[in-house]
Design a protein that fits this description.
The complex is a heterodimer of chains A (64) and B (578).
Chain A: H1 5-28, H2 35-54, H3 60-63
Helix pairs in contact in A: 1-2
Chain B: H1 4-7, H2 9-40, H3 52-84, H4 91-113, H5 138-168, H6 176-207, H7 216-227, H8 229-244, H9 246-250, H10 257-270, H11 287-299, H12 301-321, H13 339-362, H14 364-370, H15 375-404, H16 411-437, H17 461-490, H18 520-546, H19 559-577
Helix pairs in contact in B: 2-3, 2-4, 2-15, 2-17, 3-4, 3-5, 3-6, 4-5, 5-6, 6-7, 6-8, 6-10, 6-18, 7-18, 8-15, 10-12, 10-18, 13-15, 13-16, 15-16, 15-17, 16-17
The chains are: A mainly alpha (64), B mainly alpha (578).
């Protein structure tokens, strides 16, 4: 894993308010995102982060 | 140096009792919190809407008076004994104030809960803001009086420890944790004088039938005299944790002891003479007074900004000690695995958002837009509901093992709990703030937005309600995890060293600051003068207009006075021109 499981949990925890608040912000800019759309973006974003986090660490020995 | 319990076993027992009592109060407050949210949002309704105020009062009083202050007395006892390195002077006196607080809280709590029992003519549906015209049973006020006297005696206990220490160390600077306790208690003594007057001189005799009526505006003003500084009374133990424990958990030391002292002095000076900012919409208080109070309130941002700087600098120092580097990469070196650290850090982050919404509340003109809407509970759920409550829960993951010598039952669940609180509060606070912006009122059992066209700024009211209910459910789940963890820890047979009860010395120590910062008499005198300046004229005006017991003074509306004033100014201007 690229980060610890606790790190991943906190990253997801912090991502949720960012998504919730960004939806409010976008609306103020005239871009309305539905609840379903927000959920989809959230799931996708969390999925990408989980995918990245579970990738094996880059092997530094190859570079050397 | 070992764990706290190894050095102060008698004090540890007292602190444990205070913490466990606060957790019971938190559990009760949490139950009523989720009931009211699910009722209000029409997700689950099993109480009568007529009982909504009973639920609301129970949620408010159990959470922000009982939970916070019981935790505070435990925390402050830890701070004083640890930093002065001496036990309390007289344990029987210490148990006396704890007992007095407990009896007071039980009397007040039972009086509130009896509101659910129709066959008993006792109730106290007066909300946390218990001013007239809402009237409670006399037992509610008697319980509060006992509780507050208990806190006064607790403060006297800590002052006594300090005086005894000072006699033995006449040339030493006050250790920072004790300094924080003393300044906070001076603020509390000043603030509670007003509520003592309000209860003993007006509300209690009124509820006993000695007076037929009281002056509602006077009791409201006396309440807010106390009602704003109580916010800082809740907050100061959280600040104390951020200053003393967070840098330690991060692996470093507090950046600046002098800056911390300045912050606590500023709170002592500025938190009381600003209560009228809760009354911007009240008729009967001149706009000029409100404007002065608004200016004073804005000065309160300074200690909060100083805190943000000092605490973040201390955390960064800790991260760099652990090998962190770069502009932001050091964040990765912080101990995110530790629930005590993560919980407090997330609480601090949420407090920043709460501070920004607080600025909106503090501005007279913008306040008019959000006053008495759901925005206001949104704000204080970020401050007391997260900055304070989440810090207390996170701190408990370190403090309870210190007080019991037992291992924390589950660290991963503790970590999940603090993150869950953060996420739950995001949903709840976002929904509340947005609802407030479109004028949805607070303190309403059944706010109805069906059957007519009502355009929410974003989404719909049902969506906002759903978000609120999800937030409350997540928070309740988080609270259950916390209480479960504490319960198992309390009975955990696996004893494990909880680590050293040491507060690291700051990078910049007390000797880098002028000794005048420790002059408690000076700061108390200035605080009293500021309160006199801020409150004498408004209180005199309220009493002269409405009478001490109401139904006196000039006729309302006060706009007639303004018309007379404008006429006088116009005449004088005309005379000047002529």
């Amino acid at each position: 894993m690229r980060i610890s499981r606790s790190g991943l949990l906190i990253l997801i925890g912090i991502l949720i308010p960012v998504i919730v608040e960004l939806r409010t912000l976008f609306d103020m800019l005239g871009i309305e995102i539905s609840v379903a759309g927000t959920l989809l973006i959230g799931v996708l974003a969390i999925g990408v982060i989980v995918f990245w986090a579970t990738l094996p660490e880059p092997d530094d020995s190859d570079a050397a | 140096m070992g764990a706290y319990i190894d050095h102060f076993p008698r004090e540890a027992k007292l602190i444990r009792s205070a913490f466990y009592t606060s957790f019971i109060m938190l559990a009760l407050g949490g139950i009523f919190g989720v009931i009211q949210t699910l009722h209000r949002t029409d997700v689950v309704r099993f109480i009568d809407s007529a009982d909504y105020y009973t639920v609301l009062t129970a949620h408010g009083v159990f959470m922000v008076i009982a939970f916070t202050i019981f935790f505070l007395v435990g925390m402050f006892t830890w701070a004083v004994t640890t930093s002065l390195e001496r036990p309390l002077e007289d344990m029987s006196f210490s148990w006396l104030w704890f007992l007095m607080m407990t009896v007071g809280a039980v009397i007040t709590g039972v009086t509130i809960l009896l509101g659910f029992v129709e066959s008993v003519d006792v109730s106290a549906d007066v909300l946390f803001t218990f001013y007239a015209p809402l009237q409670a049973h006399p037992l509610f006020y008697i319980g509060l009086v006992l509780f507050v006297i208990g806190t006064w005696l607790a403060g006297a206990d800590w002052f006594r420890s300090w005086w005894a220490w000072k006699r033995e160390n006449p040339d030493e600077r006050i250790p920072l944790p004790t300094f924080m306790v003393l300044t906070t208690m001076i603020m509390w003594y000043i603030a509670t004088l007003a509520i003592a007057v309000s209860i003993l001189a007006f509300l209690l005799p009124w509820s006993l039938g000695i007076f037929d009526h009281v002056n509602p505006l006077l009791t409201r003003t006396l309440f807010w005299f106390f009602g704003h500084p109580i916010v800082y009374f809740w907050l100061m133990p959280a600040y104390m944790m951020w200053y003393l424990l967070l840098p330690k958990f991060a692996g470093g030391r507090l950046f600046s002891d002098p800056l911390a002292r300045v912050v606590f002095i500023l709170f002592l000076l500025l938190s009381t003479p600003v209560g009228i900012h809760h009354q911007y919409m009240d008729p009967g208080i001149a706009e000029g007074f409100k404007f002065i109070v608004m200016t004073n309130t804005m000065f309160l941002l300074l200690p909060s900004f100083l805190t943000a700087f000092t605490v973040v600098a201390s955390i960064e120092h800790g991260a760099r000690q652990r090998g962190g580097d770069g502009y932001f990469s050091w964040l990765k070196s912080l101990p995110w695995r530790e629930p005590a650290f993560t919980g407090m850090a997330l609480a601090g982050l949420m407090f920043a958002a709460g501070g920004f919404s607080g600025m909106i509340n503090a501005g007279m003109n913008i306040n008019y837009l959000v006053h008495n809407t759901l925005w206001v509970p949104g704000h204080f759920h970020l401050t007391v509901g997260t900055a304070v409550a989440l810090s207390f829960m996170a701190g408990s993951y370190w403090l309870i093992p210190q007080m019991t010598g037992r291992r924390l039952a589950s660290k991963p669940i503790a970590l999940l709990q603090v993150v869950l609180w953060f996420v739950g509060m995001t949903f709840m606070a976002n929904s509340m703030h947005r609802s407030g912006l479109i004028g949805i009122p607070r303190r309403t059992a059944e706010p109805q937005y069906q059957g007519f066209e009502f355009e929410a700024a974003l989404g719909s009211v049902s969506e906002l309600n759903a978000q609120l209910a999800i937030g409350a459910t997540l928070l309740f789940l988080s609270l259950t995890l916390f209480l479960w963890n504490m319960l198992i820890t309390a009975f955990n047979k696996s004893a494990e060293s909880p680590g050293e009860n040491v507060i690291p010395t700051p990078l910049s120590g007390p000797d880098d600051s002028p000794a005048v910062l420790d002059n408690m008499k000076l700061w108390t005198a200035i605080a009293v003068v500021l309160v006199i300046l801020a409150y004498t004229l408004p209180l005199a005006s309220i009493v002269s207009r409405g009478g001490l017991l109401g139904r006196g003074g000039d006729a309302f509306p006060v706009s007639i006075d303004y018309l007379a004033l404008f006429a006088q100014v116009a005449l004088e201007s005309a005379a000047g021109l002529v």
